[in-house]
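Please fill in the sequence for the structure shown.

STRUCTURE ENCODING:
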C-alpha cells in the first residue's frame, strides 16, 4: 500500500477538502450499541483492519493484534452470553445479556489485543514503564483508526470491555497465545439506533493556543 506524499513547493497547500472529509468521519463516529446486519464485503473489513495496521507506534514496535469474527460472529456472541451466565447473576446478568443482543445482530466483531512480547520488552536502556505507556498509547491510536474507518464506511460500532470478565475463556475461544492481553471488543454493523446528540467540553476548555491555563 502506498500513498503519495508531496514534498517541496507542491506541498505548500493545505488539503482543506481532505481535512473536512476526515473531520466529518470523526464527528460521525459515535458509540452505536444497537446494530443490524447487512452486506459488508471481506474487502471492506480488510480495509478497516488496514486502518489499524498502519497506525503509529513507539519505535514502530506495533504491539496491537486483532481477531476479526464474521463467520463466527453469532457463535462468538453466544459464547460471550454463555460465559457471562457462569459469572454474573440476577439483574446484572439480565442487563448484560440485554446489551449483547444489539452486538450479536451486527455483521462482524473485532477483538483487540496487546502483544506483551512487545510491550513488556523495551529496547535496551528504555524505561520499562514508559515503554508500556507508549504501547497503551499505540493501542489507543490503533482503536481510534479502526473506529474512524468504520465510521467512514458508514458502519457503526462501540467499544466494549466484556473481555476483562472472560479473559481466559476468550483466549481459548479465539485461540490466541497467553502472551496476548485483551484490550477491548468492537461489535460492528449497520446502525440500528440514532445516538443521543454528542457532547464535549467547549473548545476553550480543551484546546489552548500558545499557553496553557495556569497563571
Ligand atoms: C477507553 C474507552 C472505554 C470505553 N468503554 C466502554 C464500554 O465498556 N462500554 C460502552 O458501551 N462504551 C464504552 N466506551 C464508549 C464511551 O462511553 C463513549 O465513547 C463516550 O461516552 C462518548 O460517546 P460517543 O462515542 O458516542 O462519542 C468507551 C470508550 C473509550 C475510549
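FILLED IN BY: designer on duty
SEQUENCE:
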Amino acid at each position: 500500500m502506498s500513498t503519495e506524499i508531496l514534498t517541496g513547493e507542491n506541498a505548500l497547500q493545505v488539503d482543506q477538502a481532505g481535512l473536512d472529509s476526515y473531520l466529518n468521519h470523526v464527528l460521525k463516529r459515535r458509540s452505536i450499541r444497537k446494530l443490524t446486519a447487512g452486506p459488508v464485503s471481506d474487502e471492506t473489513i480488510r480495509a478497516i483492519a488496514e486502518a489499524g495496521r498502519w497506525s503509529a507506534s513507539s519505535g514502530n514496535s506495533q504491539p496491537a493484534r486483532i481477531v476479526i469474527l464474521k463467520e463466527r460472529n453469532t457463535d462468538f456472541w453466544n459464547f460471550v452470553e454463555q460465559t457471562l451466565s457462569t459469572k454474573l447473576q440476577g439483574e446484572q446478568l439480565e442487563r448484560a445479556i440485554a446489551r449483547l443482543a444489539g452486538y450479536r445482530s451486527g455483521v462482524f466483531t473485532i477483538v483487540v489485543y496487546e502483544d506483551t512480547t512487545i510491550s513488556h520488552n523495551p529496547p535496551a536502556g528504555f524505561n520499562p514503564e514508559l515503554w508500556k505507556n507508549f504501547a497503551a498509547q499505540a493501542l489507543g491510536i490503533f482503536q481510534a483508526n479502526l473506529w474512524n474507518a468504520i465510521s467512514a464506511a458508514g458502519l457503526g460500532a462501540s467499544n466494549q470491555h466484556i473481555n476483562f470478565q472472560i479473559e481466559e475463556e476468550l483466549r481459548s475461544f479465539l485461540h490466541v497465545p497467553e502472551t496476548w492481553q485483551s484490550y477491548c471488543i468492537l461489535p460492528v454493523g449497520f446502525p440500528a439506533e440514532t445516538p443521543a446528540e454528542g457532547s464535549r467540553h467547549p473548545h476553550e476548555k480543551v484546546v489552548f493556543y500558545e499557553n496553557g491555563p495556569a497563571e
